[in-house]
Amino acid sequence: MRFKDFLEKENISLEKAAAELGISYEDARRYRLGLVIPRKENMKKIFEWSRGRVTANDFYLTEDK
User: 1-43 pLDDT, tens per residue?
Assistant: First the structure.
């Protein structure tokens, strides 16, 4: 599941996600928009925080898939 889809499904704001993940709001925004792929340490945080629903592979999905 893509990061933005997880946020929408769980009704989680970017501000809350960033705070809970311990990352900047700007990083969370870039991840949600698909502008950047998280570094290894943030990828692990996102995976654990989302209870395994957002994986590293999900950041490589394109809009048409």
Answer: 999 999 999 999 999 999 999 999 999 999 999 999 999 999 9
Instruction: Please give the Cα distance from 63 to 20 (Å, whole number).
Output: 26
Q: Indicate the SS3 state at residue 65.
A: coil
Does residue 38 contact residue 59 with C-beta atoms inside 8 Å? Answer: yes
8 A C-beta contact, residue 58 and residue 3: yes
Beta strands in 1-65 (DSSP E): none
Beta-carbon contacts of residue 59 (< 8 Å; ≥ 6 apart):
2, 3, 31, 34, 37, 38, 43
Going from the C-alpha of 30 to that of each of 3, 4, 12, the distances in angstroms are 10, 10, 16
